[in-house]
């Protein structure tokens, strides 16, 4: 299982929100580029970057920092937040970003999502942010009427192969991840499922690893010291 340390970006700094609430923001990193370098030194192969400011604004706001991380590390990088045009996707990929995550736009514009899947293939992932079993959009500020499993069925149908599933109620709460949610997804053979939200211990990661998930995103627990990144990376390499 791939462990992806996360950096959420707002005004050029690394921050974390609690349950997607922008009024409950904590700044953890004044220099995200240096932090990414340290994550690479600790053994990370991938990094998960979210332009939180962009997610709220509907357009990229932290592109320069993201490009600096690309240029100053050898990490594989996935980026989400405010990506709502094919031009933005192409600009990120041309800058060397490995995978671009679509969120709100994927829900609101079916033609856009299908064309992105066709044009950019495995460089596209979709973020499925879940609140009470339903998909949320616009930086988690709006809950749709779309059921998670129906949405995942559709993503498989149109050829999306990677999905990041986040339980918003668990995110940043340090109360453990939603293991039952991910257990229900482990048999989706045509989707690389990345678990996100609420991972607060090595036990959480061990449980996810035993489900044979593709990946897990490590956020707040890493910043608070509840989970050591090196130990998490080693665990991710263990046989399930």
From TrEMBL:
Pfam family, one: His_biosynth
Family according to the record: Belongs to the HisA/HisF family.
GO MF annotation list: 1-(5-phosphoribosyl)-5-[(5-phosphoribosylamino)methylideneamino]imidazole-4-carboxamide isomerase activity
Catalytic activity, as annotated: 1-(5-phospho-beta-D-ribosyl)-5-[(5-phospho-beta-D-ribosylamino)methylideneamino]imidazole-4-carboxamide = 5-[(5-phospho-1-deoxy-D-ribulos-1-ylimino)methylamino]-1-(5-phospho-beta-D-ribosyl)imidazole-4-carboxamide
Enzyme class: isomerase
CDD domains documented for this protein: HisA
Gene name for this UniProt entry: hisA
Keyword Isomerase attributed: yes
Cellular component per GO, a single term: cytoplasm
Location(s), subcellular: Cytoplasm
Protein name, entry field: 1-(5-phosphoribosyl)-5-[(5-phosphoribosylamino)methylideneamino] imidazole-4-carboxamide isomerase
Matching PANTHER family: 1-(5-PHOSPHORIBOSYL)-5-[(5-PHOSPHORIBOSYLAMINO)METHYLIDENEAMINO] IMIDAZOLE-4-CARBOXAMIDE ISOMERASE
Active-site residues, record numbering mapped to chain: 8 (proton acceptor), 129 (proton donor)
EC number of this enzyme: 5.3.1.16
Gene3D superfamilies membership: Aldolase class I
Key words of the record: Amino-acid biosynthesis, Cytoplasm, Histidine biosynthesis, Isomerase
Gene Ontology biological-process annotations: L-histidine biosynthetic process; L-tryptophan biosynthetic process
Pathway named in the protein's UniProt entry: Amino-acid biosynthesis; L-histidine biosynthesis; L-histidine from 5-phospho-alpha-D-ribose 1-diphosphate: step 4/9
């Amino acid at each position: 299982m791939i462990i992806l340390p996360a950096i959420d970006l707002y005004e050029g700094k690394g921050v974390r929100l609690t349950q997607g609430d922008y009024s409950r923001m904590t700044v953890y990193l004044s220099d995200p580029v240096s932090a990414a370098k340290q994550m690479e030194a600790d053994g990370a192969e991938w990094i998960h970057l979210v332009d939180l400011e962009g997610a709220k604004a509907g357009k990229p706001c932290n592109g320069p920092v993201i490009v600096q991380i690309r240029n100053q590390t050898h990490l594989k990088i996935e980026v989400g937040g405010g990506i709502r045009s094919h031009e933005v996707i192409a600009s990120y990929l041309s800058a060397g970003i490995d995978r671009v995550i679509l969120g709100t736009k994927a829900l609101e514009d079916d033609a856009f999502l299908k064309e992105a899947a066709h044009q950019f293939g495995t460089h596209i992932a979709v973020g499925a942010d879940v609140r009470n079993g339903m998909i949320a959009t616009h930086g988690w500020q709006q809950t749709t009427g779309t059921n998670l499993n129906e949405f995942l069925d559709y993503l498989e149908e149109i050829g999306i192969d990677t999905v990041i599933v986040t339980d918003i109620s668990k995110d940043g709460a340090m109360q453990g991840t939603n293991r039952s949610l991910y257990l229900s997804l482990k048999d989706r053979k045509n989707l690389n499922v990345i678990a996100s939200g609420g991972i607060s211990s090595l036990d959480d990661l061990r449980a996810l690893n035993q489900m044979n998930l593709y990946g897990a995103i490590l956020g707040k627990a890493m910043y608070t010291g509840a989970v050591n990144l090196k130990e998490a990376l080693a665990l991710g390499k263990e046989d399930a």
